[in-house]
Amino acid sequence: MENEPLMDDALKGAVSSLYRAEGRHYHNLAHVEAMLALAADYRELLSDPEAVEAAIWFHDAIYDSKAKDNETQSADLARRELSGRADAARLDRVMAMIAATVTHDLPHFEDAAATRDAAFFLDMDLSILGAAPNAFDAYEQAVRREYGWVEEPMWRAGRGAVLRNFLGRPHIFHTEEFRQRFGPPARLNLLRSLERLDAIR
To answer: Of 25, 89, 99, 183, which shows the fewest CB atoms inside 10 Å?
Structure first.
């Protein structure tokens, strides 16, 4: 277990196939690859980069826009696939990071280094909010396609509530690094998106 990587090529291949499922317009392999690129950018600041990368691989492995337990199912899949590759404490950290993507609130760890890893992981997941306007707009259109079954008034209300929740927080991102890099453009993107939603009503 000590020398075996958490994510070997065979496991990455198996998980990749889940992200290629039909109907994944945003929560697909490109999203995972974007997060992995950010994990590489900040690797020296991570205490357990392999655990963060495993959480990235599994966090949206199970995704059904009509379901309400995607994160729990994804965490359970991670536990099954990674058992034997990680000790219980490390596996618990990976699962807690995945579960935290429900609200993007920071999970509570006694280990400050694990908490910081989780903060980077959650910030990586939300980095699209601070992307260039055209990339952010493409993301919003892709998510809307994933929820194509939701009627427009209900979509606008739900999406507006999500955006207002993030805007109402003191900081959208947990780490100072992401606040500086993505914070200001994220607020502009979210405000612009809300203006569009309100204009349609």
So the answer is: 89
Residue 167 and residue 191 in contact, taking contact as beta carbons nearer than 8 Å: yes
pLDDT tens-digit profile, the chain (201 residues) = 445 789 999 999 999 999 999 999 999 999 999 999 999 999 999 999 999 999 999 999 999 999 999 999 999 999 999 999 999 999 999 999 999 999 999 998 999 999 999 999 999 999 999 999 999 999 999 999 999 999 999 999 999 999 999 999 999 999 999 999 999 999 999 999 999 998 765
The whole model's pTM is what?
Answer: 0.95
Domain residue spans of the chain: 9-200
The CATH label, of 3.40.395, 3.30.460, 1.20.1530, 1.10.3210, for the domain at 9-200 is 1.10.3210
Cβ(173)–Cβ(183) below 8 Å: yes
